[in-house]
Amino acid sequence: MTLRIRFAFFLLMLCQFTWAQSDSIKLKEVVVSDSNLKKYSTSQSVQVLNDSILDRNQPSLTSLLNFNTVIYFKENGLGMTSAPSFRGTTGAQTAVIWNGININSQFLGQADFNTIGTRDFNSITVKAGGGSVLYGSSAIGGSIHLNNDLRFKNEFSNHVFFSAGSYNTYSANYRTIVSSDKYSLQVSISRNSSDNDFKYPGNSDERNINGQYYNTSMNTTFGYKINANNTLKAYSQFYDSERHFSLTSPNASKTKYNDFNTRNLLEWESQLGRFTSKLRAAHIGESYKYFPSITSNNFTYGKVETSIIKYDLAFDVNDKIKLNSIVDYSRNKGYGSSIDNVKREVGTASLLLHHLLTEKWDYNASIRQEITDNYGNPFLFSFGTKYDFTSFYRLKFNASKNFRMPTYNDLFWERSGNPNLKPETSYQAEIGNEFFRKNFTLSITAYYNSIKDLLRWVPGEGGGDVWAPENTDKVRAYGAEVLVEWKPKFGQNNFTINGTYAYTVSESQQLIKNELIYKQLIYVPYHKLTGSVAYNWKKLSSYFQYLYNGEVYTTPFNNRASKIKDYNVGNIGVDYDFGAKNSYKIGFQVLNLWNENYQPVTSRQMPGRNYTIYINLNF
Amino acid sequence: MKKFNKLFLTVLISSAFFVSCSNDDDNNDEPRGDYENGIFIVNEGNFGKTNGTISYLSDDLSIENNVFSLVNPGKITGDTPLFIGFKDDAAYIVVNGSNKIEVVNRYTFKSIATVTANLNNPRFIAFANGKGYVTNWGEGSDPADDYVAVLDLTTNTVTSSISVVEGPEKIIENDGKLYVAHKGGWGQGNSLTVINSATNTVVTNFVVGDVPSDLVKDNGTLYILCNGKPFYADVETAGKIVKVNLSTNTVSSTLDFTGITHPGFLDIEDSKVYYTIGNNIYSMAANATSLPATALFKASDVTNLYGFAVEDNKIYAADAINNQDPGEAYIYSLTGTKNKSFTVGISPNGFYFND
């Protein structure tokens, strides 16, 4: 019922936008930070979110992806810990790739999507489905790619973004690009903070207590063309944040959490005839501190340092056949309150082939072997093909085996970690249909995914307080995704209309009263829908965003009483560009337009209607 | 619409019944409330979520879930209720994660007060000398901030606190003294504290065994079930049953479990001790000097025994199942025949007899 009302509203908004315009897309000479993503993902669903989308969304990766993709988020209150479910998988089965390097936490095996800012990146790419051959552990449900792409041309530009919103929410970002045809430098600094003390929507007089947070990040990307055949690139990121975790009951103990992450990557690319060699060395540091009570200085902590060396040799056999061989060695060392100075070494070798059979038909086939002492040595593969039947219809097929390795906590947690764990493995297949016209694309993808040896922490025999990790369940997930984009233009009125829809069934077997029954995984909605309409007319632009999350179960046996109800959230924004030569925009946003009262997770309230004003200067 | 009509009819008919029932029931034994007698079951819910609830099982074996919120609209039990203590006409629900005690009338379950000040990680409550004594962990990782809060039962405020060693858990009263088992917070405790309620001071603290988790008094003796240190501890140890002489406050005897057995729960009924290992139920004479070799029976329906009691020739077992879905409460005969089972709330932890 409510859904229908929202749709009516959605349509109404659409009508109002019939007088607008859009950023024209300029072609830039860009050096992509992750070229393999393009080359070996042609048979899969890939969605690129560019800087205009990054600017208009809230700076957290959760908010960006929630409103623009099929990925469902289990967010423990605004700004608090947040885990994705991509195609019915868990947070640890979604890989986050920073300039080609997997940065999922070594402790939890997953990234907290509220500790990744979006404004430091040029583009963010969402790739659905298996990607373990290229990106390793966790790329089961899909992968999120954070890209810093470089331009080699004479340029000096500055970008300033500042916003202020309800609950003392401030966001600032400064980005500069200094480049010539020889070198290119990009520096980006971001700061976000909020008191986050919103009043619960509805009639309640309760407030969000202890939800304040801040984060600061800096990203530097540097490229240097030594000569025509050699390029050196350096990427660096620092991220520092403190979050007080929102309380679920007014007198609960107040806690806080610090994250500090550093990421550094050096890359040397040389071109030797038909060979391209890429040597990469990376260092990733992650650490956290948890204060169970903010009134005391007691804390628990953990720290992992990871070093990676990766060598990628590409060979273009001819115009049609491309080969890549990649060897990769990574070593990490972790310690902390419950991790006792342990080391893990992983080596991998991959072979990738891309073959253009005809103008219309290509395929790729890849294999990967992983070698380690700490868990099994999985062999992975991927095969995909794409065929253009007509000028407006293309068919894609992809099948792969993927994996997730046990995490530091799983293996090494003091006295309950289990050294005999196997990695999770997944076999999956998908079929994608793409329809396209000049200003229109529609893709419909159906998939099936079977995951075994799922890693879970379960209570010990006979109950009690002792939980330990095990390879327990099996999950079967299947569903369909629809992505649509339409960019109609009527005179000076430019529209961009985007929509996504996902239908997801993801089930594991549960023993209920001595009977094995398949039940939907917790926090996986059967339905998720997003939509957006952007409208530009001369110097005025506006947009409307819509999100619908279907109801989810919160218990393994799918208890109906504790289901979380579905919710609809809409945002609206308008900005005006008052610059003559440069772009100087001032804008206004209303988030949660109809004051929806919702909790994505049990007891975790989200804010009602709230407001943001921003300026966005490019010069 | 059809459904609604049916419902309406049902309500109409049943209300007629209720009216006639209460007319017939005009005995001199005036009922004091809907929840007189019967058993409360505390369902912890999940830590960090406010989905803890209280269930009520009446003497005629009908179950009503979520009674606190039903009787007190707009109020919730909160985050991880652990225990209900009874004193006079009141029941005190200790809610650990929400740092509060909900005080209700034990017969009507109507709210009387909510105590929130000066509680920090409250666990259990006992009563002596007209006061309530509430064990508090403070911060779980801090060994120096643990205390027993003294609750003034007339004003429902915490008036003072008694500092104790880490991890005070179960507490019971005997003859004006309070006995506190130090299960150990996030670590593993091994001692018992005795508090004099006349002076609110610690009389003594002595070692009883690793991880003392259940306290029952019977016939001048305090029976303490010690779980033993778990496998993730520095050294894993076996559990034991320790008997303390309540007049001398010293350990009078100890029954050791063999190997590295970790027993779960303990209760005493009619001079018989009942305890559990996994979902096996054992029994022995209270004065037995050795542990029985075989179990009384195995509660094979139970997957995750989380609460246990023996009362009026019945054995009660709470099954938390997966700690996320609603749990089950089972009633067995003393010989292990399953009589009845009920679906209750999430993570049921025990049975609190309102008599």
UniProtKB/TrEMBL annotation, chain B:
Leader sequence segment: 1-24
PROSITE patterns assigned: CNMP_BINDING_3 (PS50042), PROKAR_LIPOPROTEIN (PS51257)
This protein's record includes keyword Glycosyltransferase: no
Cyclic nucleotide-binding domain residues: 35-112
Record's keyword terms, sorted: Lipoprotein, Signal
InterPro entries found in the cross-reference section: cNMP-bd_dom (IPR000595), DUF5074 (IPR031815), Host-pathogen_enzymatic-act (IPR051200), WD40/YVTN_repeat-like_dom_sf (IPR015943)
Protein name (database record): Hypothetical lipoprotein
Organism: Flavobacterium johnsoniae (strain ATCC 17061 / DSM 2064 / JCM 8514 / BCRC 14874 / CCUG 350202 / NBRC 14942 / NCIMB 11054 / UW101)
Taxonomic lineage from the root: Bacteria, Pseudomonadati, Bacteroidota, Flavobacteriia, Flavobacteriales
